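Exercise: predict the fold of this chain.
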Amino acid sequence: MREVAEERTRPDGEYALMLSGGSDSRLILAALTAADRGVRAFHMNDWHNVEAEITRRVAETAGVPITFLRRDRDYQARALVGTADRDVRRLLQPAPRRRVRGSPLRRR
Protein backbone atom coordinates (compact mmCIF):
# COMPACT_ATOMS: atom_id res chain seq x y z
CA MET A 1 0.00 0.00 0.00
CA ARG A 2 2.88 2.37 0.66
CA GLU A 3 4.08 1.86 -2.91
CA VAL A 4 0.61 2.59 -4.27
CA ALA A 5 0.45 5.77 -2.19
CA GLU A 6 3.86 6.82 -3.50
CA GLU A 7 2.85 6.14 -7.10
CA ARG A 8 -0.50 7.93 -6.93
CA THR A 9 0.35 10.99 -4.85
CA ARG A 10 2.85 13.82 -5.05
CA PRO A 11 5.55 14.09 -2.38
CA ASP A 12 4.87 17.83 -2.02
CA GLY A 13 1.07 17.43 -1.84
CA GLU A 14 -1.23 17.88 1.13
CA TYR A 15 -3.95 15.27 1.44
CA ALA A 16 -7.24 15.31 3.34
CA LEU A 17 -8.67 12.03 4.57
CA MET A 18 -12.14 11.36 5.95
CA LEU A 19 -11.16 9.07 8.80
CA SER A 20 -14.02 6.89 10.02
CA GLY A 21 -12.05 4.64 12.32
CA GLY A 22 -12.78 1.64 10.12
CA SER A 23 -10.13 -0.54 8.55
CA ASP A 24 -10.30 1.06 5.08
CA SER A 25 -9.58 4.62 6.15
CA ARG A 26 -6.97 3.45 8.68
CA LEU A 27 -5.18 1.51 5.93
CA ILE A 28 -5.16 4.56 3.65
CA LEU A 29 -3.83 6.71 6.50
CA ALA A 30 -1.09 4.17 7.21
CA ALA A 31 -0.11 4.05 3.53
CA LEU A 32 0.02 7.85 3.21
CA THR A 33 2.06 8.31 6.36
CA ALA A 34 4.41 5.46 5.40
CA ALA A 35 4.92 7.23 2.06
CA ASP A 36 5.74 10.39 4.06
CA ARG A 37 2.84 12.35 2.60
CA GLY A 38 1.27 15.33 4.31
CA VAL A 39 -2.10 14.25 5.66
CA ARG A 40 -4.86 15.98 7.60
CA ALA A 41 -7.65 13.78 8.94
CA PHE A 42 -11.30 14.74 9.29
CA HIS A 43 -14.05 12.91 11.12
CA MET A 44 -17.77 13.69 10.87
CA ASN A 45 -20.16 12.66 13.59
CA ASP A 46 -23.10 13.86 15.66
CA TRP A 47 -21.27 13.68 18.99
CA HIS A 48 -18.01 12.45 20.47
CA ASN A 49 -18.77 8.73 20.70
CA VAL A 50 -16.66 5.56 20.59
CA GLU A 51 -16.08 5.90 16.83
CA ALA A 52 -14.87 9.48 17.26
CA GLU A 53 -12.54 8.40 20.09
CA ILE A 54 -11.07 5.65 17.88
CA THR A 55 -10.38 8.14 15.11
CA ARG A 56 -8.76 10.54 17.58
CA ARG A 57 -6.43 7.77 18.80
CA VAL A 58 -5.63 6.60 15.27
CA ALA A 59 -4.75 10.14 14.14
CA GLU A 60 -2.70 10.74 17.27
CA THR A 61 -0.79 7.47 16.79
CA ALA A 62 -0.13 8.35 13.14
CA GLY A 63 1.00 11.84 14.12
CA VAL A 64 -1.50 13.64 11.89
CA PRO A 65 -3.80 16.49 12.86
CA ILE A 66 -7.51 15.70 13.01
CA THR A 67 -10.49 18.01 12.75
CA PHE A 68 -13.86 16.90 14.07
CA LEU A 69 -16.81 18.02 11.97
CA ARG A 70 -20.11 18.06 13.80
CA ARG A 71 -23.21 17.29 11.77
CA ASP A 72 -26.17 19.49 12.52
CA ARG A 73 -29.50 17.96 13.47
CA ASP A 74 -30.86 18.19 9.89
CA TYR A 75 -27.84 16.56 8.22
CA GLN A 76 -29.36 13.09 7.75
CA ALA A 77 -32.68 14.42 6.48
CA ARG A 78 -30.88 16.58 3.89
CA ALA A 79 -28.68 13.65 2.87
CA LEU A 80 -31.69 11.36 2.44
CA VAL A 81 -33.66 13.92 0.46
CA GLY A 82 -30.67 14.62 -1.77
CA THR A 83 -30.12 10.92 -2.41
CA ALA A 84 -33.81 10.27 -3.05
CA ASP A 85 -34.03 13.23 -5.47
CA ARG A 86 -30.97 12.01 -7.37
CA ASP A 87 -32.33 8.45 -7.56
CA VAL A 88 -35.75 9.62 -8.76
CA ARG A 89 -34.18 11.82 -11.46
CA ARG A 90 -32.10 8.85 -12.60
CA LEU A 91 -35.18 6.61 -12.76
CA LEU A 92 -37.14 9.18 -14.78
CA GLN A 93 -34.48 9.49 -17.47
CA PRO A 94 -35.13 7.35 -20.53
CA ALA A 95 -32.81 4.41 -20.79
CA PRO A 96 -30.36 4.64 -23.68
CA ARG A 97 -31.14 2.33 -26.55
CA ARG A 98 -28.57 -0.37 -27.01
CA ARG A 99 -27.99 -2.45 -30.05
CA VAL A 100 -26.92 -6.01 -29.62
CA ARG A 101 -25.16 -7.52 -32.60
CA GLY A 102 -26.73 -10.65 -33.87
CA SER A 103 -29.94 -10.01 -31.92
CA PRO A 104 -33.05 -11.37 -33.64
CA LEU A 105 -34.84 -8.18 -32.55
CA ARG A 106 -32.53 -5.92 -34.49
CA ARG A 107 -34.26 -3.69 -37.03
CA ARG A 108 -32.88 -3.32 -40.52
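Check your answer against the key: Helices lie at 2-8, 23-34, 50-62, 75-92.
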